[in-house]
Amino acid sequence: MKSDQSLLNLVKRLNTIGIALSAERNIDELLHQILRGARELTGADGGTLYRLDAERTHLTFALVQNEALAISLGGPDAPIPDRFSPIPLRLPDGTPNMRMVAACAVLEGKTVNIANAYNEPGFDFSGTRQFDTLNNYRSTSFLTVPMRNHEGDIIAAIQLINKIDDKGNTTHFSEQDQDLAESLASQGAIALTNAELIQDLHNLFDSFTRVIANAIDAKSAQTGAHCRRVPDLTMMIAKAADGAAFPGIEDFVMTESDYYELSTAAWLHDCGKIVTPHHVVEKSTKLELITDGINIIAERIEIIARDWILVRLSRKLRRGEQLTEEDLVISADEQQQLQQMLTFLKTSNTGGEFMSDEEVAKIRETGQMSYTDIRGVRRPLLTDEEIAFLSIRKGTLSEAERQIMQDHMVHTINMLEQLPFPRHLRNVPEYAGGHHERMDGKGYPKGLRREQMSVPARMMGIADVFEALTAPERSYKKPMPLSQALSILMRMVEQNHLDPDLFALFIDKQVYLDYARAYLSQQQIDQIPQEIVDWAKQQQRTTMRPE
């Protein structure tokens, strides 16, 4: 019998182990702590931790440990070999499997304490004897304890093998050992349930953020996989910057929690687009609303051609002249004139190039041509709204539509600020809501300057632009090669749009190349301009702090 002081020390150690279990969130480590703690408290040479499978029909080996044999199996670093087959709780005929100790303990919901397995007639220890023969070992005493969660359900079992006494001899597990093991099993089961609940909530939240991102990507073929690629690129930049002591961000370091927070923000960075009207998000031409208005204009031009024919026929009839087959169709010159006009309007409608003053004037001039509608009313070829859309200088969006698109950031911030993020995710709204801000304060939605933005928010700005430039899904442009995309980013840095230090890191650490190898076509991966590489090195020297 242990002395009072020894018993007190064991109770203190049990409490210490229990506190450690309640604080552990990594399930693999938690399982190791449970089994190690049980072995420590009872003096067991070896042990196995079983977990009940999802169907509650088998016990699977989670951990196998044996100090004398230097065995430690289980977890990502040392997976359980296939030879450790799951233990069925029921036999093929459906009867309870009471011959296996672990199955019996789980089925009956009580501890099984065996002093000598080789003299125990009630259980099948053939597998144990085979193990002993192969490893020159003798498994004698067994203590198998079921683990119940807070609802009383058995979720696992601890099986301890060979208690070693103070003299190094194998002996049986005492009643005190059983009490300690049962107490630890109870604490371990609660800790394991809590950790799994936290992990389940964590997985649910992650899945929810990805469902939102995937829904936004699915909403528009124009953005393709934008919401899935930006997080990957953002994390590439963050990993390159973390602890790199790079000029301008010398003190930037990230913990595992910081990475998770940034990843969450990146997945949610465009969540406000979920309320952006579909026709604005999807607008691939200037005249596209529900359908592309250029088709209506083409039909009006057909009417103009018929008007010209009718005018010609009407004149000849008034003069009493003979009609010919040529009078029933427009001339080759007229057809060429109308075709050139339609081609010009179609080209203007794509939004692929910057519109010059001359082209805008030509659109207004073309719009003054007229046709006769079904009521006999003369109407201009182009309405004022169509002239305004076709005269958009760059891209396909009008100022009003561009504002609607930009408002997705307002919606993003409003949505995220309404969520009760826990402390370790409190920066998600700021990170996600800042990727359209500019270093000079001329961005949106808040007009923040560089010094008002966190480093992660500035990273996301680079990731968002670079992904958009190189993306293959945008119908209004071709996916850019690296040289072109990085040249544009370089100009955006010079215009105080993007962060210069992070862009220098992006170039120096070749983050762009890592991303390109993962996501771009081989045709897009070309040689980047040397001037960009030289600029990045000069930026480092300029930003370098004096000793």
The CATH architecture category of the largest domain equals: 2-Layer Sandwich
Classified by CATH, the class of the largest domain is Alpha Beta
Low-pLDDT segments, ≥5 res? none
What is the average per-residue confidence, as pLDDT, rounded to a whole number? Answer: 88
> What would you call the structural class?
alpha+beta
**How many distinct beta strands?**
10
Helix content estimate: 40-55%
Count structural domains. Answer: 3
The tally of helices reads 19
Q: From the alpha-carbon coordinates, what is the Rg to the nearest angstrom?
A: 37 Å
Q: In one word, what is the shape? A: elongated
Q: Strand-and-helix sequence, N→C?
A: HHEEEEHEHEEEHHHHHHHEEHHHHHHHH
The biggest beta sheet is recorded as: 8 strands, antiparallel
What share of the residues does DSSP label as strand, in percent? 5-15%
From the structure above, extract its key features.
8-stranded antiparallel beta sheet; alpha+beta; 547 residues; Beta-Lactamase; 19 helices; single chain; 3 domains; Hypothetical protein af1432
Description:
It contains 19 helices and ten strands. The chain is α+β, with helices and mostly antiparallel strands. The chain folds into three domains: 195 residues, GAF domain (Beta-Lactamase, 2-Layer Sandwich); 164 residues, Hypothetical protein af1432; 103 residues. The strands form two sheets. Strands 1, 2, 3, 4, 5, 6, 7 and 8 form an eight-stranded antiparallel beta sheet that branches. Helix 2 packs antiparallel against helix 5 and helix 6 runs antiparallel to helix 18. The protein is elongated. The model has no long low-confidence stretch (mean pLDDT 88).
